[in-house]
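Workshop exercise sheet. Pairs work together: one partner reads the sequence aloud, the other fills in the structure field after running the prediction. Swap roles for the next sheet.
Pair: D.N. / O.F.
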Amino acid sequence: MIDMQQRQHYNNIYIAKQNYKRGDNQSMGRVILFQNAIPFWQTDATLQDHSDLVIISGNADNEWHYTILAAHVPLLLAALTKDARSSFAVPADASVLDVLANHFAGDQNPYDDILHFLEQHAIPVTATAWLSSD
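Structure field:
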């Protein structure tokens, strides 16, 4: 039986992929790429107001962050649209969040896969962490 958090996770993936297929690229601001209820863990991507892309993975106590500066977001979008794993034709006005969700959202935490993809395509990224002192 699927609990409410799992249902919301699958709904977020479905909505992101449907928006992507339709070309409905209104600013989403944030997309959840992975969520686990027990133990709680979430990975999401946020396009900040100044257009830096921040990918966060963690729980209530610890978080790990990848930041792709605004100047490098077009490189990421270009790499994602050329990647063979894409199951949809990418609209010309596709949002980086839509394309990121299409590639990485799912039942497995994509955080390490995203870093590997960034390194493979020579996209500059800054990694930081916020860890509790417990």
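Discussion prompt: The CA atoms of residues 33 and 73 lie 17 Å apart. What would you look at next?
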